[in-house]
Amino acid sequence: MSDQVEIQFDLEVDARGLSCPMPVVKARQALKELEPGQVLRVVATDRGSIKDFQGWAQSASDFELLAQHEVEEEGRKLYLHYLRKTA
């Protein structure tokens, strides 16, 4: 996970409370709504989503994984994933 920086995004998916593979499934659906160059932010509570998004990004050709951040909100960890649609 990288240090948090402000990344502008066009659409957000709230995947809190969802377990693998649902954050990725929800992200895949949301990417269909975006135009190339637009950014999707996925908010997840499943720590496994870190590796899930990394693995998915390695095999995908229609988006790039820009960043991943771990933040704390109201006493629980959130995992933020930023994806840019490329095609």
Structure overview:
With 87 residues, the chain is α+β, with helices and mostly antiparallel strands. It has a single domain (11-85), classed as 2-Layer Sandwich (Translation Initiation Factor IF3), CATH 3.30.110. It has helices at 22-31, 49-59; strands at 11-15, 39-44, 63-73, 76-85. Strands 1-2-4-3 form a 4-stranded mixed β-sheet, with helices on one face. Strand 3 (63-73) and strand 4 form a beta hairpin. The protein is globular, with a radius of gyration of 12 Å.
Shape verdict: globular
Rg, Cα atoms, Å: 12 Å
Order of helices and strands: EHEHEE
The count of β-strands is: 4
Structural class, please?
alpha+beta
Look at the structure and name the CATH superfamily: TusA-like domain
Name the average pLDDT.
93
Spatial order of strands in the largest sheet: 1-2-4-3
Determine the fraction of residues in helical runs and give it as a percent range: 10-25%
Distance between the termini: 25 Å
The number of helical segments is: 2
Count of domain modules = 1
Give the tags:
Translation Initiation Factor IF3, globular, 87 residues, 24% helix, alpha+beta, 4-stranded mixed sheet
Nutshell version of this structure?
With 87 residues, this protein is of the alpha+beta class.
Write the layout of secondary structure elements.
Layout: E1 11-15, H1 22-31, E2 39-44, H2 49-59, E3 63-73, E4 76-85
Parallel strand pairs: 1-2
Antiparallel strand pairs: 2-4, 3-4
